């Protein structure tokens, strides 16, 4: 067993709005081991980003996180902003869909990357400069010495994403959180970036959290996955278990909503309806209005995330077989 | 598919350039978005158009619809050239050709009710319809796309992305068009909603006997909906073939690379697969590589590839390919040469950084001046 680098217990995130409170993440628990890739999957608004922003101490001002997120022996949620600033980048780093959110548009690449090493790791200017070029080369930027003199806007989207990955890796974090890192990229460039992630986890033992809505991406590189719905994890397990034998109707529905490159015209069996508003969650299982397999109990009681087969956890009362025909019939009603 | 070939749309030698101001003291640059594009669309089929961003998919869609005027070439609709038709004459055909855009909310006027939005094309194209008739048609369309008729007086912001796309589809359908250009219609939607809209489009296609030109960067989606598929690279067709043939045996090196790069939602298959990886990114359309535009990223490129544009050759089974080496690659199973990661076309120049993200900002239409060029 590899060492656990992140242990999250009962993480909840609440946002205060005028009169009300919104629970964007509820009771999330998971562990991350050295060198593994955990995919976090779910539709927009399901709490994927907020959960990890909370762990990074990057929530908006009206947000508050409770629970524990233990990395390197300390609870990240209990640290002050100042302490977190210091650890951020060193223990844990995060990259985003739009690299421009992390890059300063008015500084040359060389300068902003070197700054990270000087500030966080006390490097001298010269040493930092050399290390920056090495890292740019490592992430596959051609002619790194030349590119380092560019401003972020002078680079293509794929190159910018590489620069951001280089920046995140400078302090050799144990955990890298990538929030939809390839969503804005073309497929050929996406393939390059995913390759790079694979090398990083293999060669450096970096643990990767990959937040994505693309099940194809998940199948290609993740070891385990966690499916989120309305702020909660509804199913967790190995990628193979969840793809070949999903036990939660939401996971099952997502899989049948995804068109395959390899077959044409097979009618999709989508999940009906829309994701709920967090402020008006239905009683019982939050998925029940869209679920083709629901029964009485689902309408009144909330299913807990409990062990099912093998290492898998599912939050669903239904114990029968999940059948595509049921999805199709239900959608036709 | 039909045994008789009913050509509905025939596009001939289409060319479209944009003039880009090159910054202070520099002369304007010419960006070639479409370079001699020729193809036909048959009645009742779905033609998919794929390619990476900036390769000219949307420009092609807009030239077909006459929302953009091509520099050169013909757009023959039932034999009649639409290019250069005066507004009056175009109106006759406008109802036949409709469009659905990517960003549903941005493409709907926020100050109009859903009913008015859907009825809008009718006002211009069928002005003699009575109010009651118009309303009846709107309600019929709302039902067809799965919107509750009682939503008729609501405003777009009250709708989710998927519902907004249904409104866009109803608006496109209301003139009873023969052809709809769908430009990334599901790209902004979550996967479960995307699947709902794809099923809806399939149903409507049958119900109304539609012909679709379906543009998407998502090869899984295009595969799902298309009978035939066109692959564009830097404004040129590199391969076009029936969907099954294209996916089973891609012949152009770019198609091959593109298809192996698409993630497969099947972990075991994904692990087994070898990816014919491509280096670099699409080069600048302002100054594309000579000869074959793809040569800077192509694992099979030889010196001759730089000399002349490869002609689009018939390659059997209704397929055309633009590569001078396709036979060799195909028959001899030529192995891709590995290339160093640096290539001339690898990193776009700052000019090339007039990137597509800008063009695709919500609300930006090609008719508008480019925000970054003002
Ligand atoms: N500052 C905020 N105030 C109130 N609600 C917020 C705030 N930030 C995010 N949320 C809500 O949190 C929920 C989860 O968002 P997020 O984690 O970004 O979803 P996703 O799964 O798409 O990444 C959303 O419904 C969003 O509206
Ligand atoms: N109005 C415009 N002015 C200048 N350049 C444009 C304009 N519209 C598109 N382009 C350029 O034309 C090329 C093709 O764009 P587009 O057809 O939108 O590509 P796609 O839809 O395949 O992503 C791109 O390089 C784009 O930047
Ligand atoms: S013509 Fe040459 S460069 Fe172009 S795709 Fe064929 S082999 Fe590659
Ligand atoms: Mg998010
Ligand atoms: Mg486009």
Keywords:
heterodimer, A: 333 residues, alpha/beta, Rossmann fold, 2 domains, four-stranded antiparallel β-sheet, globular, B: 374 residues, eight-stranded mixed β-sheet, disordered C terminus, binds adenosine-5'-diphosphate, binds magnesium ion
| CATH structural class of the largest domain in chain A | Alpha Beta
Uncertain ranges of chain B: 338-374
N-C termini distance of chain B: 48 Å
Shape of chain B: globular
**Which word captures the global form of chain A?**
globular
> Mean pLDDT of chain A, as a whole number?
92
Taken in chain order, the helices and strands of chain A follow as EEEHEEHEHHHHEHEHEEHHHEEH
Strand line-up of the largest beta sheet of chain B: 6-7-8-3-9-10-12-11
Main β-sheet of chain A: number of strands, strand sense, barrel status? 8 strands, mixed
Tally of strands of chain B = 12
Low-confidence stretches of chain A: none
Strand content of chain B: 15-25%
Describe the fold and architecture:
The complex is a heterodimer of chains A (333) and B (374). Chain A has 333 residues and is of the alpha/beta class. Chain A folds into 2 domains: 4-222, 3-Layer(aba) Sandwich (Rossmann fold); 228-332, no CATH class. Chain A contains 12 helices and 12 strands. Chain A has an 8-stranded mixed beta sheet with strand order 6-7-8-3-9-10-12-11, sandwiched between helices. Chain A has a 4-stranded antiparallel beta sheet with strand order 2-1-4-5, covered by helices on one side. The mean pLDDT of chain A is 92. By secondary structure, chain B is α/β, with parallel strands linked by helices. Chain B folds into 2 domains: 7-233, Rossmann fold (3-Layer(aba) Sandwich); 250-373, no CATH class. Chain B has helices at residues 57-64, 87-94, 114-125, 131-144, 161-173, 191-208, 219-225, 243-248, 253-261, 267-272, 326-332, 356-359; strands at 7-20, 29-42, 46-50, 72-77, 80-81, 97-100, 179-183, 211-215, 228-233, 236-242, 313-314, 320-321. In chain B, the strands form 2 sheets. Chain B has an 8-stranded mixed beta sheet with strand order 6-7-8-3-9-10-12-11, sandwiched between helices. In chain B, strands 2-1-4-5 form a 4-stranded antiparallel beta sheet, covered by helices on one side. In chain B, α3 crosses α4 (131-144) and α5 (161-173) runs parallel beside α6. Chains A and B meet through α6, α7, α8, α9 and α10 of A and α6, α7, α8, α9 and α10 of B. The structure holds adenosine-5'-diphosphate (2 copies), iron/sulfur cluster (SF4) and magnesium ion (2 copies). One magnesium ion binds at residues 57-58, 184 of chain B.
